[in-house]
Amino acid sequence: MKSTDIYGVIAAVPTPLDFKGAIDLEAFVEHCTFCLSNGCDFLNVLGTTGEANGFSADDRVTLMQQAASRLDPHKLMVGTGTPDIETTVRLTTLAHTLGYAAALILPPFYYKPVEEDGLFAYFEQVVTRTAASPIAIYLYNFPQLTGIEFSPALAKRLIEAFPDRIKGAKDSSGNLAYARQLAQIDNFAVFPSSEASLADAARDNFAGCISATVNIDPAASQYLWNHQKDAAALAHVTRLRSAITAHPLISAVKYLVGLRSGNERWNRVLAPNLAITDKHRQTQLKDIAPVSVAAA
């Protein structure tokens, strides 16, 4: 693993909603505390699982402020990437002010195809315009949703140009061969989106994982991170992840968090996502109820 300030098991946490559709801060803090107390080294808030791009900039600001006041912000990576640079700069600057460990930034995802020089120029502006707020930046690669992939050449170019700011990437492509290429870049920390990748993290030079399904049994992922050759641990997290991803991911994760916490508010999502209301799906998800290998 390359040297990095952020490492290990990171849950991409969902964002709970009250009956009016506003963010439920108490439920959010309860779940974040659960994750940090049960195996997570850090948390990624306001990412894809957190439905960040469904919230207004003001809502994101409010959650960032409240989360930083109730949790240790040094344990939080926050999504600040938006299609417009003004909002991205605003949120990234705020993340530094509040003491967040890092900003996870999507590429500007509306205009495409886009040349790599254009992507470089965008991140150059973000770095330059947040120079007085020099928070660590991680690139967020999710081509299935953004339609844009950070090439290894572009990632290398960015870290060479801004070594004090560009620190690594979260790769949600699911392409481990690609993630391994990124991980060969010097001083560039790579986090695949599946906890199963932890089994070969040392071999592949991964800094850990950032995963939605870690929310359900973070202790098992931490066990695998610490015992990377444990076949039973790998089988456990693989089965759990497969069972969850057989359903709409964000909705399934929120439903399961609701089961754990006993808080039905978790079974609310932002449109166009849909809540898990189908009884057959609910039964399948209830059957997942994890028994962690770490506790076995």
Structure description:
This protein is an alpha/beta fold and 296 residues long. The chain contains 12 helices and 8 strands. The chain has helices at residues 25-37, 57-70, 85-98, 116-129, 143-146, 152-161, 176-183, 201-204, 218-226, 231-245, 249-261, 279-286, and strands at residues 8-12, 42-45, 76-79, 102-105, 137-141, 166-171, 189-192, 208-211. The chain has an 8-stranded parallel beta sheet with strand order 7-6-5-4-3-2-1-8. β2 (42-45), α2 (57-70) and β3 form a beta-alpha-beta unit. α2 (57-70) runs parallel beside α3 (85-98) and α3 (85-98) crosses α4.
What coarse outline follows from CA principal-axis ratios? globular
Strand order of the largest sheet: 7-6-5-4-3-2-1-8
Instruction: Decide which structural class fits the backbone.
Output: alpha/beta
- Strand fraction: 5-15%
Listing every helix as H and every strand as E from the N terminus to the C terminus, the arrangement reads: EHEHEHEHEHHEHEHEHHHH
